[in-house]
Amino acid sequence: MKKTITLSILCLLSFSVFAQLKKGAALIGADLSLSGTTNNQTYGSSETKSSQSNFNISLLAGKAVKDNLFLGGALSFATSGNKQQGSTMQSLKVYGASVWLRKYFPVTKSFYAFVNGAVGGSISNNDLSSIGTTEKGFGVAITIYPGVSYQLTKNCYLDASLNNLANIYYNHASSNRSDAIGNPVKYTTNNYGVSTSLGNGNNPLQLGVRWIIQK
Questions:
Q1: What is the mean pLDDT of each run of 10 residues along the chain (215 residues)?
Q2: CATH class, range 2-213
Q3: Domain boundaries defined on the chain
Q4: What is the pTM of this model?
C-alpha cells in the first residue's frame, strides 16, 4: 500500500513538472478574419448594388518571464469598407497595439487553463465619402478574459477563450463637416464605459492557434 501511494505521488510530481511552461519559452501567434457581403436590389427596371467587406489581422509575441507566466505585445490592423453602385461610401482603417500578460494553469499533460489581461490603444481613420469628410479618432482599453489551451503538437497549441469578458474603454473621434448652408462645423464624439460580455457581438467563443517554443 505504501509503495502504491509513493509511486502515485512520484507520478503526480513528475507529471506536474512536465506540464510546466518553463521560464524563457517564446510564444507567438496570429489571428486573421475576412468577411464580405453583397446586395442587389431591383426596382422595376432599375438595380441597386451594394457591398461590405471586413478584414482583421493581429500578430503577437511574448516570452515566459516565470514558469507559466508570459509577457508580450501585439500589433493589429483592421479595415472595413462600404460601397454602393461601385463607389466607396465609407472606408475605415484601425491600427492598434497592446501589452498583454498571460498566466497558464496546468490541468493535465496537454491541457491548460489561462487568464489573459491586456492594455492597448488604437488610432482610426474613417473616410466618410458619402458626406465628404474624414473622421479621425483614438481609443484605449483594458481587457481581461479566461480561456483554455490544448497542446496539439510539441509547439502548437489550440486556444479557446471568452474575449472581452471584462472591458474598460475610452474612445474619441472628431471630424470637420459643413451644415446645410455651408458653414464649417466640428463634430467630436467621446465614448467610455465598463462592460462585461461573453465574447464579441454574437460570437462568445474565440478560437486561436499559438506556438510556444521552449528552450
A1: 47 52 94 87 79 92 97 96 80 95 94 96 89 88 94 94 86 82 83 74 74 91
A2: mainly beta
A3: 2-213
A4: 0.78
